[in-house]
Design brief:
Layout (H helix, E strand, L loop, with lengths): L5 E6 L19 H13 L4 E4 L8 H10 L5 E6 L6 H14 L5 E4 L16 H20 L3 E4 L4 E5 L16 E4 L3 H10 L2 E4 L4 H17 L8 E11 L2 H17 L14 H8 L6 E2 L3 E2 L14 E5 H14 L1 E7 L3 H11 L1 H4 L2
Parallel strand pairs: 1-2, 1-13, 2-3, 3-4, 4-7, 7-8, 8-9, 9-12, 9-13
Antiparallel strand pairs: 5-6, 10-11, 11-12
Length: 356
């Protein structure tokens, strides 16, 4: 596998304990607990972690800043939402954290449904929502790379704006990468023109291949004026010492999910977006797709990256991830629970096989 591949983990950032089967422990979301995860990521070969976002969860940017201050190489992939932030405010906050951390900030732009009224935001139908996201991404990037920016859009406007501190170029990196997800036609148009990295959830290889081809064609037809779009995979990886042990544990987890009606697992299912619908529809094709893509979790409450799992020994899961890499995936955001133990297990067993 190419040395250009990057491997990140996931930090749930939730006030409720037991997220996706994690251990229920006191202080599960304390700074010490989250720092132990971030430091374990550094020690076990991970680049950083996606930090979850949404109203009713701790503020993601604050958590990312706190973890960055307690680590030396950990790179937070900070989920943020247009409307929760104004573009100029976010551009300045992210530039500040990027400066203070020596260039460790990554950004995941989220456009899915949220409790907007709770923080004073509102949005219209899908086309309007993604038009606003497109403006947000374009304006943030301009504020990072240009000075004295004036912009009058349908949703946002600034006049003679120069975000401080100015971002320092770091090799080919001019600014934090903007990751983006979404599978609808409107979302893919935003990705094709504005995103640096398009994130996919755990679809089978044929689905990911088809989406990569479509996004590349869209980028060309829409006149993308940025470097080529990169692609990432956000998926659960259940790795054990043997195939039999992995499947026994996977089936036990699914049985527990069924017993509790998926409690703690379905944080992307309240309003089923196109990408989530695609995952849920996979179960009709079979319990296991490709070599070891397990679809049953989605039938018993799994949502988002917990809808489908890659299950097996480290060698088997690595083999599957290599096949995604051959399609053009270069950013991998993996996870399993309990989070801390699996950071260490997969860092020791899985990552070395992916770096060969």
């Amino acid at each position: 596998m190419s040395g250009t591949s990057e491997f990140l983990w996931y930090i749930p950032n939730d006030v409720r304990a037991g997220h996706r089967g994690d251990a229920v422990a006191e202080g599960h979301n304390s700074l010490d607990t989250l720092t132990s995860q971030a430091r374990a990521l550094e020690e076990h070969g991970w680049k950083g972690a996606l930090i979850g976002a949404g109203w009713g969860r701790p503020d993601t940017f604050t958590v990312a800043a706190a973890l960055a201050a307690r680590t030396t190489s950990f790179e937070p992939l900070i989920a943020t939402r247009p409307g929760y932030w104004q573009p100029a405010q976010f551009a300045s906050a992210a530039a500040t954290l990027d400066h203070l951390t020596g260039g460790r900030v990554r950004v995941n732009i989220v456009s899915g449904r949220d409790n907007l009224a709770a923080y004073g935001d509102s949005e219209g139908e899908q086309a309007q929502r993604y038009a606003r996201t497109r403006e947000f991404m374009r304006l943030v990037r301009r504020l990072w790379t240009e000075e004295d920016v004036s912009f009058e859009g349908e949703h946002f406007r600034v006049s003679a704006s120069t975000a401080a501190p100015r971002l320092a170029a770091r090799g080919e990196r001019r600014h934090p990468k903007l990751y983006f997800g979404g599978a609808s036609e409107a979302a893919e148009q935003v990705a094709a023109t504005e995103a640096d990295v398009q994130l996919f959830w755990g679809e089978p290889l044929d689905g990911v291949r088809e989406r990569i081809e479509r996004l590349k064609a869209l980028s060309a037809s829409l006149g993308r004026d940025l470097p080529p779009l990169e692609f990432g995979l956000r998926i659960t990886t259940l790795v054990r010492d043997t195939t039999g042990q992995a499947w026994a544990d996977a089936e036990a987890k699914v049985a527990e999910m069924a017993r509790t009606h998926g409690a703690g697992w379905h944080d992307h299912r309240q309003s089923v977006a196109e990408g989530q619908r695609r995952l849920l529809d996979l179960a009709a094709r079979g319990e296991v797709l490709d070599d070891n893509l397990y679809t049953t979790p989605g039938k018993v409450g799994g949502g988002g990256a917990g809808t489908t799992w890659l299950v097996g020994s480290a060698a088997e899961v690595a083999s599957s991830l290599r096949k995604y890499r051959e399609l053009g995936i270069t950013h991998f955001v993996l996870s399993d629970t309990p989070y801390l133990a699996e950071i260490k297990r997969q860092g020791a067993q899985l990552l070395p096989l992916l770096r060969d």
